[in-house]
Amino acid sequence: ILDMTEEKLRPSLCGRSPALTNVHNDNSRHGVSNTAIEGTSQDMTAEDAAVLRRQIMKLNRRLQLVEGENKKRPKREMVMYSITVAFWLFTSWLWFRR
């Protein structure tokens, strides 16, 4: 029983989803086997794993871009703040000079 709970908690790295692994374990525990379903589910999980890897890579790239923008944001805000303060000081100086 400990092996089954550890397998349910452990992430699957071989491309098989935990839900399908649990179904397979339940079927083998009860003496039921269906090779056609197992073969299809393994093929589908391999394809799903490839799709998920691609999606993770895309999300990783997007996350890196967002992190890069967040690093640049304080510099941009400081420049915009400085420009705004300089503008208001210049306009107030012109207004007082009249």
UniProtKB/TrEMBL annotation:
Region annotated Disordered, chain positions: 15-40
Membrane topology label: Single-pass type IV membrane protein
UniProt keyword annotations, A-Z: Coiled coil, Membrane, Mitochondrion, Mitochondrion outer membrane, Peroxisome, Transmembrane, Transmembrane helix
Regions of compositional bias (Polar residues) in chain numbering: 19-40
Origin: domain of life: Eukaryota
Biological process terms in GO annotation: mitochondrial fission; positive regulation of mitochondrial fission; positive regulation of protein targeting to membrane; protein targeting to mitochondrion
Main location: mitochondrion
Gene Ontology cellular-component terms listed: mitochondrial outer membrane; peroxisome
Boundaries of every Mff-like domain copy: 6-98
Listed InterPro entries: Mff-like_dom, Mff/Tango-11
Localization per Swiss-Prot or TrEMBL: Mitochondrion outer membrane; Peroxisome
Ranges that cross the membrane: 78-96
Subunit structure: Homodimer. Interacts with DNM1L. Interacts with C11orf65/MFI; the interaction inhibits MFF interaction with DNM1L.
UniProt family annotation: Belongs to the Tango11 family.
Chain's role: Plays a role in mitochondrial and peroxisomal fission. Promotes the recruitment and association of the fission mediator dynamin-related protein 1 (DNM1L) to the mitochondrial surface. May be involved in regulation of synaptic vesicle membrane dynamics by recruitment of DNM1L to clathrin-containing vesicles.
Protein name, UniProt field: Mitochondrial fission factor
